[in-house]
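Reply to dn_fold:

You asked what the input looked like. This is it:
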Amino acid sequence: MLDSRKTFPTIDKEKDVRSIVPYDQSIQKSAEDLLFQAARESDEEKAKEKWKKFRQQIEDENSSSNQVKTLINSLDNHKRWAPLHYAVEANNKYVFQQLTSGNKTYRSDININGGNGENVLHIAAESDKIWTNKSNTVHENASEILTLDSAVEQTLCNLPDIVQNMLNLRADVNDRDIEGRTPLHLAVQNSRYEYARALIKLGAEILTTSMFKESVLHCMFSSSQTNSQKLEELIDDILSRLDDTQKQKFIQMTTLDNHNALGYALCNSAVNESILFKLFIDKNHIPDNQLLVAFDTLAHHAQDLTEDMKYNLTSLLNKMNIKHHTMFEHLPHILCRHNNSSLLTWFHDEFIKINLRNSVRPVDFNRFDSGGYTLLLTAVFYNAKDCVDVILKQASYSRQYLSARNNNDENVLHLCAKHSVHDDLFNIIWNTLSDVYQEKMELVLQRDIEEKTPLQVAARFANENMCQHLSNYAPLTDDFKREAAREASAAGHLNILEIIFAYDKETKQSRLQPAKIQNISRTGDKYEHTCLHFAAEKGYDDIVKFFLATTTIQVDCLDKRRRTPLHLACENGHIKVVQLLLQANASTTLRNAHVYNCLEIAITHQRKDIVQELFKHSAWKEMMRNAQPIENTEAFDTPMRKLIRYMPDMAVWLINNKFTRIVGGPGEKVYKTIYDYEFYEDMFKVKHWYSPNPDSNFELPTCTSLWRTRGVEAIHTCWCCCHPTGSMDCMLSDDKVFIINDKSLIPKHEDMDMKSKAAVE
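and this is what came back:
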């Protein structure tokens, strides 16, 4: 309930209710915020008002001179600029004078750098507000203005007053930003020609380059807003300050990616013939290789040539025609690299006329370059469809060059496949060949330096459109399709295999005849690698599933090293492929050329998940019953021994889970633990595991053979029911031979002991 004794202010209805709320004081701004707001203001009256608020805030906070100095030279978090930088960008002459006046408390360092290393001269070069609203005033701090000669003063008179003041206050004209650019770089790049001339007269270095090695000339021609007359005047001014050696160095400077200034000049519509002549033609400053780089720059940046650009290009080429004629045959290839069809058309229509007027042979569009490429092959290499259209439509182009091959024996179809050209480009080539059946067949059947056909290359690079056309091409036999199927399997392109086998996704069956399917899929390459080998080796389980479900391919096919697809999957650790092959009843006991089965391959490559999967298989004991003789010994290696060496943790698991069996339980009549010693005491079985053939040439395990191979001291007795013979040979069958030491309690045979002592003596 409200207290009736409390009184509330009355509201004057004629007064705006919003005036009751002190909005201006709701958020208290710091001195730093007020300072940057004043510096960013481009309106002079508002700038004065905000500067006044800043000064008042400083007084209210009782800030010391050092605190104010730190504040004046601090950088913000937005652009990493100081207040002086913002004042210059906004052409805020009032705040600029306050920050550079005689009052040392508020004075900023004229050469203070921003976060990107720029100073006020860099910012002035890029500020549109300075150059769109020029005015000339006298700086208040007249005591620090430089004493300049009349020529410099005349140049400064044409500059905005804020720029004059910066230069008079000794702003560093050679300061570099984080990219290594000086104010001169940015001045010419933004077409501030009078500013650039003033910087040069005040000592700006002309031959300096950026971190990317861009020269002043590069920046000059990269400007999009260029005045030809003023540009030429600046170039004359620069050249007049350089000797011949410096001029050549200035003109021949290249960027880190080897681009020269000529290429930039040819792309600039404001560059006239006079400028080109002074810089590049008169003294032949540009070497031949740099001319090609210049045309590469032109082809990349100038897709549409203006009439002035065409005129300049014609003038340049016409003056260099005789000396650089061998270079001209490279130019069309450069144009195709950037698919610049307009420049290629101009080159074909206009430049041949120049050659004819000068009595020089015309450029041959069919000539091979150093790599064996014709112009058409180059255009296909760079996927330049527009240039291919231009080339095929030229009357000078000979159809015989459709079958041309480069130094790698690749024809136009190989290149279409290898570089995955657009479908439209391939269709143009294919339709052009359709009129000449014999020519098309030769191209389809040709092999490159790697003995690959175009269909194989298309399958490797998953070019569906090409595979569709080539697979349906009548003269193409199953042998070619088989090769392509292997390429697609090795690259993991299921979509290409579906095209080759005419796979119907609705019925999930191939539309080919069973005999044809078998003929394409069953045969391997020169190493007997089948499609299934390639897919299993790379782990393409979808392709393995495709072959197992669609074709009648043999799951246990062997290559020349007796490796099955299961061997390769185990070796490379592809568990999903292993599971698919096991489900398809792949043999687990087939051995490769090293007599290793799939389990041993997985163990030696430490594929734990695959080893566990194989031990789940019902034939795990058969996999364990394998052996290989150890060279120069009579010993054998087995899966169990490999498991102990490579995967001891799995060996422990195997002993506990596979070799140990518990019958019954506590409290039951029968309760015992049964141990399987088959893979512990395997010395009399390993030879049979290695070669179960009774006709093998291996020596039977007699005491004599053991004595001879291991030494007399290694064997003290045999614990068996042998009968004495004249040769003292103890024939062993299923009886075990125990190798014991001197501490053994097993009784010794007297005869054997006597023989041992005699042998030692």
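The chain has a mean pLDDT of 82.
Hope that clears it up.
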